[in-house]
Amino acid sequence: MRVPSPESQPTQLDLLSDEPVRSPPEPLRIRRRSAISSTGGPHLVPIEQIEEDPANPRVEFPEIELKDLASDIRMRGVLVPLVVHPADANGRHRLHFGAMRLRAANLAGLRAVPVVVRDAPADRYAQVAENRKRHNLSPLDLARFIRSQMNAGESQTTIARQLGMNLTTVAHHLSLLELPPVLDNALRAGRCTSPRTLHELGRLHDRHPEQVEALLDASAPVTRDAVKTLRARVDSISATGPARLIGQAMAACDRLEKLLVGIDTRGTAGDRCALQALQALQARLVALSRWSGVGSDRQTP
Length: 301
What we know:
Blueprint: E1 11-13, E2 20-22, E3 43-46, E4 50-51, H1 63-76, E5 82-86, E6 93-97, H2 99-107, E7 112-117, H3 124-133, H4 139-151, H5 156-163, H6 167-175, H7 181-188, H8 195-207, H9 209-217, H10 224-237, H11 241-261, H12 272-289
Parallel strand pairs: 4-6, 5-7
Antiparallel strand pairs: 1-2, 3-7, 5-6
Helix pairs in contact: 1-2, 4-6, 5-6, 6-8, 8-9
């Protein structure tokens, strides 16, 4: 009988068979590293060496969802690796995708999590897309992201194209940042989360706040059908007499306000015609602000 060399694969002979039985392979393990390269598969990295991206568009992490995910991670571990990129030469990493998983893993008591490393920092639109696909990005988070991109100089058209939205949907999200308190509370409480529905409720609230508040106080779900019914009811009340004209004037004020927001007065410098037009507009606005609404008491400059 030949003695196997030390380098050969260890085997176990089956006395009932001529075929050797090999020891089962060891289970595949994710390697743990403090500093990792951008090649290869996932590696375990200590949670303390991963920092969240301060520019992450997601800022809301509901406590109930976080606890549920932490409970699942305690039983099964982190099934989908996080995505990071090197933050410095000392082994620290900045998170691309997986902020919810990172927080839940920390809550579950894990000391390290599986990660995949990329060379470049995260693309903000990619972060938004990843969160939207997982249904984790709240409408308010998305509204804040749109506003931040506009503040950085991007147009609504560019933002809409990057997000795969139309301009109306972008406008509806932006309106979430300017909701009256009663609607803002309804959004944060999950009473109504549709940007379009909240936009319509906001316009109704400008003219009939008591009707909108009554709808929100009721136990029935706040749906688009409910808002449509409310709008038909208040429109029928305002169909005749002064109430109708007041409603039309309020709607005109809404349109006027949006137009005024879009006027950059700095652009009139050096343009005599534009400056004269701006001065005429300002005079009209001053005249309207003096209107008393009492018959012949209407004042004009």
